[in-house]
Amino acid sequence: MKSPVYFWNLRASLKAPYAERIRKLLTRTGFAEHIDGGELTAVKIHFGERGVTSHVQPLMVKPVLDYLAKAGARPFLTDASTLYVGQRGEAVSHAMQAAHHGYDPLLLGAPVIIADGLKGGNQKALPVKGKHMAEAFIAADIADADLLVSINHAKGHELAGYGGALKNIGMGSASKQGKMLQHVTTGPLVNLDKCVGCGACVSMCASQALSLAEALGENMKGQKKHILLDQARCIGCGACFLACKTGALEINWKTDVAAFLERMLEYAAAVLLTRPKPCLHINFVTNVTPDCDCMGFSDACICPDVGILASLDPVAIDQASVDLINQAEPLWPSHLPKGLKPGDDKFRALRPHLPEHLGLDYAETLGLGTRDYELVAL
Ligand code: SF4
Ligand code: SF4
Hints:
28% helix; binds iron/sulfur cluster; globular
């Protein structure tokens, strides 16, 4: 059976301005019928790294929060800490970054709560039936919320290829440990120039894969010891990343992308399939940049603004968003290859190593939804 995906093409009028269109779009999904009253509702969003301008803007989010509150829910805006060092690596900087981008509780009527605690360690293990894992480590306040709404910026992504609802939920709801377990397959890349020989990572490694070795002479910083990784013992758990403060242990971003996508989608399954009530997903197919909102800049868009989509099916809404982006006119000076036409696959043109369906076929296999959708225009 086809899943309905409700679509507004951004045309507005004095009688039906933005907030009214959003209200109509969300009403069509039927989500409000699942609100009894008083539910603490996690609205999972990406506040945008410092320097980004293409993230979903707070004034675009306000009518969504108003709609939820009017239906009886008690929404809060949320995200979890990132793995990399930036403005969102722990809760204090993250909340300040949200404020810097205008996510003001008094303006929006909803507070910002960073869902995995002060340093990213507040997590819950949720069960999942995947081929890579049986449990996933999810930011506790997202797991604990009575209802879940995802607000997603549909765009490209440097590793996943495309980022929409499933990426926002799968990667974005994971605790730091959960994020590491999605990224890591073969353990860390070791940058000896950055290693100060402190040994902090050694005790973190339950597999005894790390040890300190005498350096052959002093390294560039004058240290006499450096870390040694026994690749054969490493199980890729990622725990050592938390210990290293110098950046000597780096994530191998060139990991097998298909397997990475599968792990990310298994995380999305852990979040969504353990919930007693349906979740609402809202995709903003606007400011469609080639990279994600973590990058610290917003590059030229790959297509014109397409619209806003809403659905209870995260697979359907992501498939519809991908299709609409691919059907749209390509835009330059984005770094899309020259000669691309409407209908060509923009995501795989940008990153040819991506699997054909960007992992959405595996999302179907996990039971997250269907790629077979019906686009219902407002
Ligand atoms: S990834 Fe895990 S097993 Fe591998 S070196 Fe780091 S802590 Fe040890
Ligand atoms: S890799 Fe990092 S944590 Fe480990 S010894 Fe070197 S500097 Fe210390």
